[in-house]
């Protein structure tokens, strides 16, 4: 991989022959695992300005340049997560000369608080081509990582690494994006992130048994008009507030309309019925046809699933049960995806599995060979399993003598459902018919008979490992412990997909590791810890929450612990801080466990909410130690089965996370919303 330094540039054609579609990833880390930023892309003309507001690609406008640029969201990595951006360079409008890749922070945060800031660029086959690490970003809240630009008809990349103290608004105005004034007229303040959504989007749908999220108000830093420097503008200047949002899109209401059926026994007619499916082969055939047909008919959905695999933005057609000659007998992959753009075709073969069926190495290998011979770009596997970084679901042989490379990519059914739910519940699609198609797809995937339920089995090693921990016979280095660690990571990632789709928030696992660390080595270390301590542990970050949500499964006691650490308010006496917390938790379960966090390693006082309600002072440290925060925890019994039955471990983890979020985290998120000037005038009438 080519290492870039600040100010350097290189032609993409020098690095790979497959740069018609490229993937840019932005990543960073923080000491707490909570650092985050919003990615944005600006498409500039020969004058260095955007042609119109639609050429500014950000969280409210994730697709720009007539589909040639798309924000693909975050994906977990061994070091945490990274934001991905798909570029179809062959489809970039001819008037666009430069494409600027940037990110911005909010709520007064600066990029100098983050570590390991880096940009990587990969070609259409997924092979990393270049990397740019930013060593010193400084006290800026918007940062330009780099730009892709045309030179003599070819695309080049330049490493920049410069920032704006003025944040997203300063970045946008410097490149010609129109800015809307804030609703309450407060100069220099951007609207809270959660309020910057299209007006047509309704509140997020609720997780079953979970209250709808109440967004925390986060005020981004004051925006300046300076371009490329970290100097603040004069105080007298009225600074712009926020970029204009994209056009309104269609979403479906969270609450279903009242049914006209005479009784609950009537079954609503469905576009994709699942009740009559009897065999795994029928489930695979039906599931493949259903998802591929919806991908072709709903451009937003099809593009969302294929852009990450290097597909261009263009006309998509999908096919099933296509026969290809291969050796003595023809091969029939479950599906084929073809995308046409400017006379060029991008093609992927699809291999589907449902229920607990595992991918077969010989099948996938045959499809890789067919794709290579025919010049196809990718083979996509689709199953209930969740792929892990550094751990392949199938081991295939790549013929290094072939000039044409084929990318092997994997999708989980849980990710397909997540993307459908994000579109129809939170982000919106082009029209009502597309929203209805996605709803029918989601209903099919969630039907108990479809076989498309995501990761649902902790594996054959689960029961032996639990027994080995119980009778203290499990030794470090046992490969069964490593299998449990890998499946635990898959489960946690699926929990994040499910919860994120329901809430419309970014929900990601936090994995603290040294930059460049091998994820397989990290899993071996965790397996040894499991053998020694008998516990599985994970941390997830939910956007808008005051802390990280921790999940601990103690295999010795059979208990699940969900917890969150919240900092104590900076102002007020210790007793006032304790009372304030107890008041905010008025609706929380009585068995909520509260522990005081103090400076140093010494443990603080602890007790249940039921006991602390009449006596909040009992939670204060008695030795005068400095109070720094509180740890809130709920405990529940852990399922013993390896599957997803009522008594299964997987279902118990889902239930524990749902209950903790609904009963505790939502209460911590609730804050008074900022009133606009119009509201104040109305109250005075």
Helices and strands in order:
Elements: E1 2-4, E2 9-11, E3 21-29, E4 38-44, E5 56-57, E6 63-64, E7 69-77, E8 80-88, E9 98-104, E10 115-122, E11 128-134, E12 142-151, E13 154-164, H1 167-174, E14 179-180, E15 242-243, H2 280-297, H3 299-306, E16 315-320, E17 335-341, E18 344-352, H4 361-374, E19 378-383, E20 407-412, H5 413-427, H6 432-446, H7 462-470, H8 479-503, E21 507-509, H9 519-533, E22 535-542, E23 549-554, E24 559-567, H10 574-584, E25 593-598, E26 606-608, H11 609-612, E27 627-637, H12 649-669, H13 677-683
Parallel strand pairs: 1-11, 18-19, 19-20
Antiparallel strand pairs: 2-13, 3-8, 3-10, 4-5, 4-9, 6-7, 7-8, 9-12, 10-11, 12-13, 14-15, 16-17, 17-18, 21-22, 22-23, 23-24, 24-27, 25-26, 25-27
Would you write up a description of this structure?
Helix content is 25%, strand content 25%. It is α+β, with helices and mostly antiparallel strands. The protein has helices spanning 167-174, 280-297, 299-306, 361-374, 413-427, 432-446, 462-470, 479-503, 519-533, 574-584, 609-612, 649-669, 677-683, and strands at residues 2-4, 9-11, 21-29, 38-44, 56-57, 63-64, 69-77, 80-88, 98-104, 115-122, 128-134, 142-151, 154-164, 179-180, 242-243, 315-320, 335-341, 344-352, 378-383, 407-412, 507-509, 535-542, 549-554, 559-567, 593-598, 606-608, 627-637. Helix 3 packs across helix 5 (413-427). The model is unreliable at 181-242 and 671-685 (pLDDT under 50). The chain contains 13 helices and 27 strands.
């Amino acid at each position: 991989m080519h290492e870039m330094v600040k100010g350097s540039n290189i032609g993409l054609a020098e690095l790979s022959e497959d740069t018609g579609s490229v993937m840019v990833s932005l990543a960073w880390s923080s000491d707490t695992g909570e650092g985050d930023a919003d990615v944005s892309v600006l498409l500039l003309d020969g004058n260095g300005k955007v042609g119109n507001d639609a050429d500014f690609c950000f969280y409210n406008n994730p697709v720009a340049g007539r589909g040639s640029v798309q924000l693909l969201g975050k994906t977990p990595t061994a070091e945490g997560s990274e934001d991905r951006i798909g570029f179809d360079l062959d489809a970039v409008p001819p008037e666009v000369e430069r494409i600027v890749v940037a990110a911005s922070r909010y709520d007064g945060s600066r990029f100098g608080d983050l570590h390991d800031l880096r940009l990587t660029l990969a070609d259409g086959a997924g092979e990393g081509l270049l990397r740019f690490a930013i060593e010193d970003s400084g006290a800026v809240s918007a940062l330009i990582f780099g730009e892709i630009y045309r030179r003599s008809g070819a695309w080049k990349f330049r490493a920049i690494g410069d920032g704006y103290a003025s944040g997203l608004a300063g970045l946008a105005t410097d490149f010609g994006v129109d800015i809307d004034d804030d609703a309450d007229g407060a100069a220099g303040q951007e609207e809270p992130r959660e309020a910057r959504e299209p007006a047509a989007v309704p509140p997020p749908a609720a997780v079953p048994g979970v209250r709808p999220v109440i967004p925390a108000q986060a005020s981004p830093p004051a925006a300046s008009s300076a371009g490329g420097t970290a100097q603040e503008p004069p105080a007298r200047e009225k600074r712009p507030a926020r970029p204009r949002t994209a056009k309104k899109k269609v979403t479906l209401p969270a609450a279903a309309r009242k049914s006209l059926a005479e009784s609950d026994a009537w079954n609503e007619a469905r576009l994709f019925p699942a009740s009559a499916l009897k065999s795994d082969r029928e489930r695979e055939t039906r599931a493949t046809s259903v998802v591929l047909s919806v991908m072709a008919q709903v451009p937003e959905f099809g593009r969302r699933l294929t852009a990450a695999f290097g597909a261009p933005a263009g006309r998509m057609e999908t096919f099933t049960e296509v026969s290809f000659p291969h050796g003595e007998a023809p091969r029939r992959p479950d599906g084929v995806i073809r995308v046409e753009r400017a006379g060029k075709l991008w093609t992927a073969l699809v291999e589907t599995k449902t229920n607990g069926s595992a991918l077969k190495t010989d099948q996938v290998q045959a499809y890789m060979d067919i794709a290579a011979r025919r010049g196809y770009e990718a083979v996509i596997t689709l199953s209930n399993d969740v792929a892990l970084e550094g751990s392949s679901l199938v081991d295939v042989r790549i013929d290094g003598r072939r000039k044409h490379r084929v990318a092997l990519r994997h999708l989980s059914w849980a990710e397909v459902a997540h993307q459908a739910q994000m579109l129809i519940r939170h982000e919106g699609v082009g029209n009502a018919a597309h929203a209805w198609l996605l709803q029918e797809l989601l209903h099919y995937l969630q039907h108990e008979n479809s076989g498309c339920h995501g990761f649902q089995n902790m594996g054959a090693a689960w029961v032996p490992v639990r027994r080995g921990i119980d009778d203290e016979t499990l030794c470090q280095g046992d490969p069964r412990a490593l299998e449990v660690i890998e499946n635990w990571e898959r489960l946690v990632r699926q929990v994040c997909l499910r919860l994120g789709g329901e809430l419309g928030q970014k929900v990601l696992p936090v994995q603290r590791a040294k930059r460049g660390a091998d994820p397989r080595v990290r899993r071996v270390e965790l397996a040894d810890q499991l053998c020694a301590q008998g516990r599985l542990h994970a941390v997830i970050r939910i956007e808008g929450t005051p802390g990280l949500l921790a999940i601990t499964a103690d295999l010795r006691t059979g208990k699940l612990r969900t917890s969150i650490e919240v900092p104590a308010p900076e102002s007020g006496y210790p007793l006032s801080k304790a009372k304030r917390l107890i008041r905010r938790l008025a609706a929380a379960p009585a068995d909520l466990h509260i522990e005081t966090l103090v400076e140093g390693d010494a443990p603080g006082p602890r007790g249940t909410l039921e006991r602390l309600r009449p006596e909040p002072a009992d939670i204060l440290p008695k030795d005068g130690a400095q109070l720094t925060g509180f740890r809130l925890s709920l405990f529940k019994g852990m399922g013993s089965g390896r599957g997803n039955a009522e008594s299964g471990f997987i279902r118990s983890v889902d239930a524990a996370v749902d209950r903790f979020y609904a009963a505790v985290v939502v209460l911590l998120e609730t804050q008074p919303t900022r009133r606009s000037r119009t509201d104040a005038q109305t109250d005075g009438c």
